[in-house]
Amino acid sequence: ALILTSDWARHALERARLRWIGLTFVFVLLAGTLSLTPFALGGVHPVWAWVERARASASIDPYLTLVELIKLTSLGAIFLIGAILGTDDDRAKSLIRWLLRLGLAYCLWAFIDKVTNPTILFGGPRLFDPSRLSASLVSANSAATLFGALTLLNLIDLDRRGYSARGATKTQRTVVRRL
Known about the structure:
Layout: H1 7-16, H2 19-34, H3 62-86, H4 89-116, E1 120-121, E2 124-125, H5 140-166, H6 170-178
Antiparallel strand pairs: 1-2
Helix pairs in contact: 1-3, 2-3, 4-5, 5-6
């Protein structure tokens, strides 16, 4: 909501033309919210007949449904921010570069933390194999995937900057764009 307070963001949102997507998203949120009440299609779930003094709803686990609705709203907010920032090419490139820098800082922190404290993470023992670099992720495979993707994206960004700084030919620029 904070990003929508600026004029450039509201103008970018108007240019993005997301009315139908937004309407569909609101419909999905309303359907999820309706499942927290006894008035959803199909009525109250039969499991609530066995629970005394419970607030009956169409959902078996209303708390989990609420958590998932909050997650869905967060994803919608991230999509909206991406759509707003993606309408301007310079802003989109700047955002990607900042995300790559933050990812690089995370990778460096993970490596330094692994070298200095191989068995301790955030003041407590590592819950996973201390012999593998897993950063703060649970799986070393997830960390390797993240680090590999960030490395590849950083190399592509550096390569593109190098071509534009050296004044690459049109053919070279076409090859780089297709990557």
